[in-house]
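User: My notes are a mess, but here's the protein and copper (II) ion's SMILES. Can you give me a structure?
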Amino acid sequence: MNGTTTIERTENAIETTVIGITGMHCASCVATVEKTLKKVEGVSSAVVNFASEKAYVDFDPEQVAQEELREAIEKTGYGTSDTEAESVSAQPEGEQEVTLKIGGMTCASCAQTIEKALKKTEGVLVTGNS
Ligand SMILES: [Cu+2]
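Assistant: No problem, the inputs look usable. Here's the predicted complex:
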């Protein structure tokens, strides 16, 4: 899948940033983070890579700051981490082994993450390992 879209109007000011995401467990998590980022004003495109736990975001720095992108993600219940300034195209496509058989199924962790974010309950940790 190579979805290259050309948007001529916005090519001047758009910057791309890479944000590390933590706490994603399945394809639904990826979709949630992408959706959240795309809703932020000034964001023209957001692609989340589950394998590398990174979000590639095209945004207009005059409308939105990188910090605000992080805040938006954190409000959803996921974490952000600093990424080293590595080349965006460093990872060849198709060489990552990911288990994404789950299709659109929502995992338990995913639901918990979002519930937790909504309730903003502190002190309750997701019991992941059994
Ligand atoms: Cu999930």
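Strands lie at 15-22, 43-49, 54-59, 79-81.
User: Great, I'll file this with my notes.
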